[in-house]
Each structure stands twice: as structure tokens, then as C-alpha cells.
Amino acid sequence: MSFLQLESLTCRYGDFYAVRDLDLTVEQGEFVSLLGPSGCGKTTTLQMIGGFIEPSAGTVRIGGADMRRVPANRRGIGIVFQSYALFPHMRVAQNVAFGLEMRKVPRAERAERVRRALAMVHLEHAADRYPRQLSGGQQQRVALARALVIEPRVLLLDEPMSNLDAKLREEMQLELRRLQRSLRVTTIMVTHDQTEAMALSDRIALMRAGRIVQVDTPQAAYDRPADWFASSFLGKSNSFRARCVPGGLLTASGVRIAAPAGAPESGEVLCALRPERLRITPPEQGMLRATVQSRIFLGSHWLLQTEGEAGELLVYLQNATAAAPQEGDAIGLAWEPRSLVLLPPDEAPAHG
Amino acid sequence: MAEAAIAARPAARRTTVMPYWLCAPALALYGLLLAAPLAMIFVLSFNGFSDTKGILPTYSLANYVSVLTDPYYQRIYLRTLRIALITTAICTLIGTPEAWILSRLDPRWRGVSLLVVLGPLLISVVVRTLGWTILFAREGLLNQALLGLGLAERPVDLLYTETGIVVALVHVLVPFMVIAVWTALRLVDPAGEAAALSLGASKAKVFRRVVLPQALPGVLSGSLIVFSLAASAFATPALIGGRRLKVAATSIYDNFLFTLDWPTGAAIAVILVACVMAIVLLWSRVLERRDAVRA
Questions:
Q1: What is this model's ipTM?
Q2: pLDDT tens profile B128-151
Q3: What is the value of pTM for the model shown?
Q4: How far is B217 from chain A (nearest CA, A)?
Q5: What is the number of structural domains in chain B?
Q6: CATH number at residue B271
Q7: Contact residues on chain B for A73, CB-CB shorter than 8 A
């Protein structure tokens, strides 16, 4: 049986559903991210797991036990808050010791466990400082140590990196992943940062408007998005409408292109295509013709904005070949047919 | 970095002079309206006095000696301090949780509740205290209720008692406590309480170990305000204590207006100010030492 189970979890405020009929199962030691735009209900879900919000309906089970009547202080859950929520009037060691003190762990054992927890996040030297004397990254690590020292059954992370600058964030991601793997603590992270979710998670639960759109491994979610929202929220994506015909696809402008395996023989679809899957060819050799509208140099690659037979398409071009096409150049675009993802056409944006 | 430092230099010079100019009007007003009368009272407290000739142009410590050695005034000072300390303690006990609850209320209710808490400040102290005298009187509402419910055998005397003064002062001064604590709590991250809960603390532990220590600067500064206001309160002790139960402020009033012994009144006032200031300074020293340890 799964370790953490959310069964048709619902949180309602009047007519507004913050979370609606959410089902999710998480295995022991797994790292799952709740990913979605702000207001999608991911934080509300986290707070229902933590016991800070009473679900309007549905169940949270940890280790098989129903958490309905279990208050937040008896759930044995470690939480790292977005603001870190360190106790400013306590020293770092006292902050970390707080949970152990509440559990009435004997003094000597407490000191030893605090020392180990601080060593784990490389902050042994800061034990006697106050939180405000630490940098944001250090405070973050204290918060992590404080949550982990109680050996929680579940670790909840609420946008843990959002207050860190980009470089520090990358370091913390590696650190967090290392810790989570070595302690094998079941972890749920809320984030709106798709790169963070992909870098850290075993699985991503993509949320929108209080519901889960897709639960998958990062790669599966990226390569096989369930719908246009999933496709556009995880990474960059191009889209264009097409009609299925036997043995291929017909774009809106009437160009015939190859269909991926298993494509239907009729009906409207929305084609999603990742910018890095597109190849640039001479105009007459491509599957579609296009013109380069603008190009941006991003170091490891170029981002080309092209306009052509399938509307606007973004292309990532490796900065490996000698020359990127100039603005205004006529080019051809090609891709492997299996790179094309066919999605239901209903929720397409106004334009790709 | 270097450019920023160069650009900041002229601005830095300007800001060293500007604050003084900006403070000048307020300082002048303060000096004129507060420092000058205080200084005059201070000088007056050394003047001699005779019942027939009034204020004498002689200077001595006689007024201080007679006030400080007179058991009558000693009782008044002790009573004043006792009332101020008890009032401060009760205001702290009521005001601190009240401010916490207020700060954790739903924003919709918070505004209304804050208005209810601060509402009494909109009504004159005299009117509010007169309200208390109606409640406290021997045939007042409180006694009627107590007798009617059989909770008391005889009418309870609250009017002209220290208890009565404390009750009325608490009512008048609790809003100051609430405001001070509320201000301190506004700086406290509510997620800290959630964090403490998740770490296994009970609600009571959360309040004692997490909320209270962070609210403490507000509690201490609030108690400072309440104490100094209670020690120098005039209207409430005058109306509830009446002529029988005097505190420092009311006896100063009597000396100035009835016996016309201004120098003695001034001496009582200076002693009161000195006592309150000594306690306040001691208190803020404790506060500052606490901050110094934490910094």
C-alpha cells in the first residue's frame, strides 16, 4: 500500500473550490512535486496534508491511517516554509532542538541529534547564531535541519527555493536531492518553478484550478503532456492546429506533414512540438517553410522566432554549428515525426 | 560599487544636517510646551510658603523634607505605585492575549474588533469614569445584580476603593497595551506558529515559546506606557477615589487649588515624576540589555 494517500481531497470556500476531488498516492521515500500556477490549489493541498486546513471532503492517509482527527502537532510531519519561519528569538541550535524538546527527547540525545542535523546541512559552525545573522541560503538550511531532525514521516516543502537567488537555488536543489535520497524521507514539494520540479522530483503532479492534470515522471510529463496546459507549463512548447487525414496531418495552411505513430485518421488535433526538437534545413528540404523573425543568443543555444506555414514556431538551435540564420532568412523546419505530440484541440490558446 | 560610493557622498553630508532642521519645529514646540513648564515647576518646588504671605522668594529643600517624611504622603505614594503596578499587571494579562487574538483574526473581523477595542479611547475619560461610578454605586447596577442573583449578602463597596480605581484604570488603559503588543505582533511571521505546531508543540506551548517571546518587546513597551499613565492618572482616581482615597495626582491638584500651597504641590509633582522616570529608565535599560544580548 502507498505511504501517503490523498483520496478525493476537496477544499471548498463557499462556491469556490480551492482543491477539488484530488487523488494522489505517494510511495515511501518518494519525492513528488505539486506543480502549477499560483492559485491552482497546490499550497492548500499541502496545508491539508500538514493539518492546517480541514478538508471539506476526502481523506489524507499517512501510513494507512486516516488523519482526519489528527491535529497538526501529532502528524509527525516536517515542514519547510517559504519564509523559513525560523524562530527569530532562538539560536540556530535551539531552533533545531525545538521539535526534539516537544518530543521530550533527553537533553544529551537532543544535543547529539541537533549536532548531526546541523552537520548534515553544513552549518555546525552557526549553532550559536541567531537566524537573522545568517544569509537566506543558510536560514533555508536551518529550516531544513529543523524539519528533518524530528525524523518526520513526511517532509513538506512549500516553495522552499523561491526566496533564493538563481545560483544558490541550484546548489540547494542538489543539496536537497542528496539529503532526500540519503534519508529516504517521503517528500511533497509545492512549487511553481517547473525546472525545480523537474530537477528534484521522482514524479510531478501538475495542477490547475484545484485539480491534478497529470502525474508522471518529469521526463514522461515533459515528453508526453496530457494536454496543452501540461505541455506549455512544463518547458517551452509550440503548438499549431491540424486535421488528421489518412497517413498524415494537414496544417491549417494546407501543408501535409507526417503524423506520429498511432495518430487517428480523422478529426481536429492540436500539435505540440518542443523548440529543441525542431531542426533547421534549407528552405526546400524542410517539412515546413518559415522565415526567421528574430533571434536571441542564449549562450549554449540560439532562440529563433520563426513565422511560416504552421504559424509562429520557436526553435532552439545549438550553438555548435558555424552560423545561425539571420533575421529575415528563409528556412525550412524539420523534425522526427515522433516528436510531434497530438493533443485534444479544445483548450488551445488563441495562438501558438 | 565605487561609483555608488562617490555618488552617495554629497547626499550623506546633506542628510547629516537635514534631520536637525526637520526636527527643529517639533523640538521648539516640545521645549516651549513641556520643558519650560516642567522647569518652572521644578524651581517652584524649592520656594518657601506661608499661609499668610503665599509663595516666598526663599529657596530650600524644606518642601521635599516635609513631603517625604510625612506618613500621609508616604501612604499616597505607595498607593499610587501599588495602583499603577496592579493596573499594569492586569493590562498585560488582558491586553497581550487580546492583541494576539486580534492579530490572528480573519481580516474582515479584525477591523471591527480593533474598533471595538480602541473605541473607548474615543470617549472622554471623565465620561467613561462617571459610567463606572454609576455601575459601582451602592445602589448601582453591579450591586443590584449581585444582590438580585444572591451572589452577595451585602452591597459590595467598589466606589472609593483602590479596587474600583484599578478596575476603571484597566478599562481606560488596556487599549494602549493592545496597540503596543499588536504593533509588535505585526512583525511576527504567522508561519512560525504553524512551524511550531508541525514540530509537535501544543497550542499553549506555541503561545508561550513562540508568540510571547516575540511579542515581548511590545508587552514591555506597552506596560511602560500603561504604568506611566496609571501612575499619573488624575480623572479616574479623582472620580472613583473621591476625596477620601487620594493618589499623587489628586493630592497635587488639592495643593494647587484648595490649600494654594503651590510649592508643596510642585514638590509632590517632582517626586512623582522622578519616581516614574526612575522606574521607566530602569525598565528600558532591561529592554535594551535584552536587545543587546540578541543582536
A1: 0.83
A2: 889 888 888 888 888 888 888 888
A3: 0.80
A4: 11
A5: 1
A6: 1.10.3720.10
A7: 197-202
